[in-house]
Amino acid sequence: MLDSRVRQKLQDIVGEAFFKDDMESLVTHSYDGTPMLQALPEGVIYPKDTAQVSAIMKVLNEHRIPLVSRGSGTNLCGGTVPVQGGIVMVMHRMNAILDIDLQNLTATVQPGIITKQFIEHIENLGLFYPPDPSSMSISTIGGNIAECSGGLRGLKYGTTKDYVIGLECVLASGEIMRTGGKLMKDVAGYDLTKLLIGSEGTLAVITEATLKLIPPPKYKKTMLAMYKDLYGAARTVSKIIENRIIPATLEFMDNPTIRVVDDFAKLGLPLDMAAILLIEQDGDMETVERDIERISEICREELADEVSIASNQEEALRLLTARRSAFTALARLRPTTILEDATVPRSKIADMVLEINRIAEKHRVQICTFGHAGDGNLHPTATTDARDHEEIHRVELAFEEIFEAAIGMGGTITGEHGVGLVKAPFLEWKVGSAGIAMMKGIKEVFDPHHLLNPGKMFAKESRRRVVIDRG
Amino acid sequence: MAKLPAATLQETLIQKLDYEQLTNCMRCGFCLPACPTFKETGVEAESPRGRISLMKAAVDGIMEPGISFEDQMNHCLGCRACEPACPADVKYGQLIEQARDAIETHTKQHRWWVSGVRKIVFKELFPHQKRMSLLGSGLHFYKKSGLQTIVRKTGAVKAFSKHLSDMEKILPDASSKGIVEQLGTYIPAKGEKIATAGMFRGCLMDVLFTETNIKTVKLLSEAGFDVVIPETQNCCGALHAHSGESDQAKAMAKNNIRAFQEAGVDYIVSNAGGCGAILVEYDHLLHEEPEWKESSSWFAARVKDISTILVEQGRPLQFAETIDDGASTRITYQDSCHLRNVMKGSNPSRQLLKEVGNVAFIEMKDAGSCCGSAGIYNVTQPVMANQILEHKMENVNATAAQYLVTSNPGCLLQMKLGIEKHGQKDRMEAVHIADFLYDRVVKK
After folding, report:
1. What is the mean pLDDT of chain A?
2. A252 contacts A279 by C-beta, under 8 angstroms
3. β-pair partners for B333
4. Do A331 and B88 touch (CB under 8 A)?
5. By CB atoms within 10 Å of each CB, which of A3, A4, B19, B53 scores lowest?
């Protein structure tokens, strides 16, 4: 229970309606989108502006009370579960678009704005903000920044970090700091903007962001290629890039995913295919036509069984449906869906998928793999049941081996979901002990009393690696 | 009410809630943007994910469900927009009904007038078709006798509740004679007969919107259906089921199943999304009673909304070409949540409306989101209902339509209320789709 003086101080800052500590509020802020994690906070607070965030942080700092800041809680790494209690700060009320600068092509927003609402607003002005996480219809820009969200357009357009050029944040001490600005070039000191992006709420509370906008592509074309040979699909991915074509989207589904998706969406997909690639290119009409033509040649050269190019919007939508159905179809198979995030250099995709399948078989668990082939960001997804502890244990073992395999291929433990609670034991595998020490040092400077999202990113101890290096 | 004094709400929740469904929620948050109460408040507890987490926490013993738990469950409109949005196919509608059912056996917190309304509506009125038509006569008398004028002028209704007084203004001309009294129980098909359709007349529909019922039947006949209207049918039980009175809902379901089975129909046609949605789920409502399995499935498989049956089974209707001056009529459509989210019938209505001659169909922004009517929600939760209606009217007005077409009596009344409140009465009219279509059909 929260000390009654602290409670009073917090209520004085935001008003009685916006600080809650009834059981219903605590329970509904004890989880995020990650399966099997839950921990109750001691209070939930809804600030309306930066000044309130600063005042709240000063109170919490004085009393050494932890804080978890969050948007819609859609993340998949346990990043916003209040594992050490304290206060959950919900940013939904801070949802204004503060400024759209058409001369500099920037937007300045508060963190609580819903990504899709922001994108729609920008698109109505004839502009483009490319990061498009699958959760964009509910996730917030602040959450996207905290996790450095990616999405389907990451290959060509980059991810959140490529579009955030300035930030305002509140430090653990309650001080307000500004980084960057409406500047395309800025080398004044360390790049604190980039450091804060993807810092998962462990360094500061983001209260404002300046985002870079770009002109939208004029034209788009969608195609689908199906392969009996997994390596054919993988070679296609590498060869497209080798040919100096960067598609807007280059998505992948493996055979187990194809089977599940087809069973669910009845799309008539061939079930004997090892992989399907969904490819989109956008830009000037002439370039798009030429690129799509060349890509389909490459697909055929790599022995694709079937290549289909959408002739109109409706057909494109049908092709996209296959990829979009993947999550929905998988989610309906079993009660618990664990969607992971291993990433490898794109030349290693086929090896990685085969490795995932081997590991799944070894541990007798169902893992389907789909994801962003173009940037090597795979989502091996286990369908299981949280109530079956023995099976969950096997799933955990399998994922441990999958992360290890990814690192062995020069990959990483997470490409766009973040470390949070779930990946914390594996972080050292990726960044090494020197890397961990450096990160912990940075954390120490920002947050000496470990109040900001404690328990995340850094595990008490790292999981020991069974095999040292696979090369 | 069957009180179980020995049990606590928590124990009853454990007993009633489907734990499998609670577990299926993976908390991905996809339901949040679909939920009207979350959209209005931005508060997690006012979302499907939040409400399911509360139910699960109560069942798991993490918290004891108290007054704010009850409030949270009662704030849900039951529009079920979260279900199509859910990747994991969680049966939220069933969970909320189970939770409310449990709450109903324990709660002491209904305000006196809510209890009063519930008792009258659920026990004394809706289950009894004769009393419903007496209500119709009463309302008819109220409007025609000048009593309405007296009540309005003296401000007597205002003393009751601001919301009810607003509602009173938009009361339609009720009828003392239901559809059977006016048309009989059998209306033959025009032209060659395609199939036999059983008309589900509804309780409120038959009293407040008899004319709409009559036009629904005539549309069916125009499209090639023999129509029978089994006299022994009663209220669908939707309001009861959604408000936690599930025993009563089951009794009414059984009676309806018997009535339509005896009538030997090929289809059962509803013109009220709210009724239709529970009719197609009679098999689920009675799933704990194996002896009803066969006949409840028989019934559920035959239920069609009027628009759906006209589009999918009926002979294409012929609509009049133009209405004189050449300028097209602007129309827009407010979805019935239950027709859209449960009966999956949002397309046929639009298809029919677009077939009508000389109309410009304007798709309203967020047409699929709830209008706030939601059964008796606008009476029991007037604050939230009003807030939702306000936002709905912004979208309605933006269409500048002359006709706002709906597919459910509750929505129709709510839209009338919205139009009345926003002073749009002179240039906009809310109509039921059956009325709109029938008035424009070329009769054979």
Report:
1. 94
2. no
3. B405
4. yes
5. A4
Query: Starting at the edge strand that comes first in sequence, how are the strands of the sheet with B429-432 ordered?
Result: B359-361, B329-333, B403-406, B429-432
pLDDT surpasses 90 at B2: no
Q: Using CB atoms, pick whichever of B26, B28, B53 lies closest to residue A28.
A: B53
Cβ–Cβ under 8 Å, residues B365 and B334: no
Give B175 to chain A, closest Cα distance, Å: 46
Per-residue pLDDT, A469: 39
Mean predicted lDDT score pLDDT of chain B: 88
Instruction: Check B27 against A34: CB less than 8 A apart.
Output: yes
Cβ neighbours of residue A362 under 8 Å, at least 6 residues apart?
Answer: A398, A401
Gap from A239 CA to chain B (nearest CA, Å): 34
Quick one: average pLDDT of B392-416?
94
Inter-chain residue contact B72 with A24, CB threshold 8 Å: yes
Question: For residue A70, which phi and psi values (nearest 5 degrees)?
Answer: -155, 160
- Judged against a pLDDT cut of 80, whether residue B149 lies above it is answered with no
- pLDDT tens readout for residues A105-133: 999 999 999 999 999 999 999 999 999 99
Which of A24, A76, A261 should be substituted to probe chain B, the one whose Cβ sees the most B Cβ atoms within 10 Å?
Answer: A24
Q: Do B54 and A28 touch (CB under 8 A)?
A: yes
Question: Which is it for strands A205-212 and A106-109: parallel, antiparallel or unpaired?
Answer: antiparallel
Span A199-221, average pLDDT: 97
Residue of B nearest to A27 (CA): B54
Q: Are A114 and A138 in contact (CB under 8 A)?
A: yes
Q: Is B222 helix (H, G, I), strand (E, B) or coil?
A: helix
Count CB-CB contacts under 10 A for residue A353: 27
> A23 and B42: CB-CB below 8 Å?
no
Q: What is the tens place of the pLDDT at every residue in B270-317?
A: 999 999 999 999 999 999 999 999 999 999 999 999 999 999 999 999
Task: State the pTM of this model.
Answer: 0.90
Are A39 and A88 in contact by the 8 Å Cβ rule? The answer is no
Cα separations in angstroms, B67 against A1, A5, A40, B16:
20, 26, 20, 19
